[in-house]
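A reminder from the course coordinator: this example appears on the midterm review sheet, so study it carefully.

Given structure:
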């Protein structure tokens, strides 16, 4: 049985009680689905582009397959968040997982690139349902001191899952560029356990019962800045899954396993650093931890700028992943902590919208830079843009 909801509020600085709570494991499994929504098909992109080379704008459309779900997440996440505040999290989460499995696997059989693109848009609605309600449930289930620890665990779990899924996708893409889409069927496997393990929190069943005095007085402005930073961060980060496969082709590594290796390094490094997020945050503070992450990501892009070998790609991917583990948990932890209880769903939707809007915009913003300046200069521009983000986050989340 699940641990009673107020059990998470008891002193438990290392989060040991959380490990015996089946809700924790269910939420972590749900989170692993979101990492698959985009990057899983990255190793298949060159093969898909070749398969549909007669399709107009096949190059851009193929790249947009990675970020197409992000557009629908960005559009629908705020509405999902508001609906979850009013009608509850559980039914939206479970229906999202079912839709995710159906839409995700459709790419394995659809006959046209346009049809696959449409299925990816539907997948985005499913991801909005999953990610928004899952994040709101974290705020509902866990007391503030443990949210940061859970978010670190969550990113560690998603990155471990990402490593496994991307490695599997790289192997499958070597057989056929359609096979990686079958990995989305994992949603069917997760659904029965999540159905049993995740109760509807009492708070979300009666909006009138929420305390309206919680949170920061300036929480709307604070959340808006966090959302802007989240969008900018993901726009830059998604250079990795959308551009690195083609950059590797340009430097003599066209094999799908090369891009799979780069993305696997990102996910493993990010998972390892995210697991230590709560510990590092306790020592460095809420502001310096993500600032350190931004500087590390900048170092990774500078490494990509400085060399044109597989070794430089590995170093860059490793640094980018390490930095991301200290940046990503900060967005939702900070936003949920600033917002009043009865607006957690809406705030989760706003941050989710920003994250996925950044993902969708990435190829639209970056591809013109690549065509105009080339890959090395684009990597350098990315590194430079991350520096003011580090300063902004350090200032916003400084100790008060």
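Designed residues:
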């Amino acid at each position: 049985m699940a641990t009673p909801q107020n059990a998470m509020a008891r002193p438990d600085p290392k989060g040991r009680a959380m490990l015996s709570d089946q809700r924790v494991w269910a939420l972590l499994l749900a989170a692993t689905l979101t990492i698959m929504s985009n990057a899983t098909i990255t190793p298949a992109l060159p093969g898909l582009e070749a398969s549909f080379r007669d399709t107009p704008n096949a190059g851009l459309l193929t790249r947009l397959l990675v970020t197409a779900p992000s557009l629908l997440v960005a559009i629908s996440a705020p509405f999902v968040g508001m609906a979850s505040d009013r009608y509850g999290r559980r039914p939206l989460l479970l229906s999202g997982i079912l839709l995710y499995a159906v839409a995700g696997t459709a790419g394995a059989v659809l006959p046209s690139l346009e049809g696959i693109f449409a299925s990816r848009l539907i997948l985005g609605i499913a991801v909005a349902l999953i990610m928004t309600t899952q994040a709101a449930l974290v705020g509902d289930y866990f007391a503030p001191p443990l949210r940061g620890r859970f978010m670190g665990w969550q990113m560690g779990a998603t990155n471990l899952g990402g490593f496994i899924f991307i490695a599997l996708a790289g192997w499958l893409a070597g057989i056929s560029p359609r096979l990686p889409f079958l990995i989305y069927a994992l949603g069917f496997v997760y659904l029965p356990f999540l159905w049993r393990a995740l109760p509807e929190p009492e708070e979300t069943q009666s909006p009138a019962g929420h305390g309206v005095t919680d949170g920061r007085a300036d929480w709307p402005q604070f959340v808006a800045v966090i959302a802007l930073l989240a969008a900018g961060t993901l726009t830059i980060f998604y250079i990795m899954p959308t551009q690195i496969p083609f950059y590797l082709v340009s430097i003599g590594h066209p094999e799908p396993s090369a891009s799979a290796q780069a993305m696997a390094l990102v996910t493993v490094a990010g998972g390892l650093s995210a697991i230590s997020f709560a510990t590092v945050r306790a020592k460095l503070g809420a502001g310096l931890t993500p600032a350190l992450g931004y500087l590390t990501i900048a170092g990774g892009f500078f490494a990509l700028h400085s060399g044109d070998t597989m070794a430089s790609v590995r170093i860059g991917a490793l640094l980018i992943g390490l930095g991301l583990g200290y940046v990503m948990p900060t967005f939702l932890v900070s936003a949920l902590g600033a917002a009043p209880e009865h607006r957690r769903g809406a705030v989760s939707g706003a941050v989710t919208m920003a994250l996925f809007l950044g993902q969708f915009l990435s190829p639209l913003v970056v591809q013109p830079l690549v065509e105009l300046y080339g890959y090395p200069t684009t990597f350098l521009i990315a590194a430079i843009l991350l520096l003011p983000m580090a300063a902004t986050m350090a200032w916003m989340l400084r100790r008060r």
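The chain has one domain: 19-201+215-396. Residues 1-11, 204-213 have pLDDT under 50 and may be disordered.
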